[in-house]
Amino acid sequence: MKLIDTRIPDVKIIEPAVFGDARGFFMESWHAGKFAELGLNLSFVQDNHSRSRQGILRGLHYQTEQAQGKLVRVTSGKVFDVAVDLRRSSPTFGQWVGAELSDENYHMLWVPPGFAHGFYVMSASAEFLYKCTDFYTPQHEHCIRWDDPTLAIDWPLANGQPPLVSGKDAQGKSWQEAITFP
Questions:
Q1: What would the DSSP string read from start to end of 76-112?
Q2: In this predicted structure, what is the pLDDT of residue 162?
Q3: Confidence at residue 42, expressed as pLDDT on a 0 to 100 scale
Q4: Are 155 and 79 in contact (CB under 8 A)?
Q5: What does the pLDDT read at residue 92?
Q6: pLDDT tens digits along 108-157
Q7: CB-CB contact of 76 with 124 (8 Å)
Q8: Which of 44, 57, 64, 174 has the greatest CB tally within 10 Å of its CB?
Q9: Domains of the chain
Q10: Phi and psi at residue 90, in whole multiples of 5°?
């Protein structure tokens, strides 16, 4: 297992060891001891699984209470995954980082608590799995608009077409309105 730095030091790409042959492949997507050796001492309480078609964008979500860290990966298809630093005390406050996650590169992304998170489906469809360090609490969930001009996230939109978002995500707040962390 290999840890890859991103331009936001606390957000990491994890490249697992993948063993494959003519029959298929095997990999450990979670191993507490191996992650701890990489400096990621994590404890998870909830797993989530979503399936979306091309052009769907989910996010940018976060919780102000019971803030969730997320270990995310794609088991089928390809997404562009984004984390936005919402920690005012951080030197990367207000910055975002994106990574392509797919069933071909097997990469995972660690998104710590204190970040907004979202992803855009680049392939015909994608199955997205994530482990969370705290439980989902809808009463504490917030959303920042995917197209906020201050953040200026460079989403790889198919044919330059706007993504499909949920009604809730369409009502996301601007960066200036977002509730942030200390």
A1: ESEEEEEEEE-BTTSTTTT-EEEEEEETTT--EEEE-
A2: 95
A3: 96
A4: no
A5: 98
A6: 999 999 999 999 999 999 999 999 999 999 999 999 999 999 999 999 99
A7: no
A8: 57
A9: 2-18+28-177 (2.60.120.10)
A10: -90, 140
User: Which pLDDT score, from 0 to 100, does residue 64 have?
Assistant: 96
Enumerate residue ranges in the chain where pLDDT < 70.
Answer: none
d(CA 106, CA 89): 32
SS3 61: strand
Two structure tokens written together for 41: 């001492």
Of 117, 130, 140, 142, the catalytic one is 130
Active site residue 130: yes
Active site residue 136: no
Q: Which two tokens stand for residue 64?
A: 């102000």
Q: How far apart are CA 180 and CA 15, in angstroms?
A: 30
| Tokens 């959303």 -> residue | 143
Residues 49, 61, 136, 140: which is the catalytic one? 61
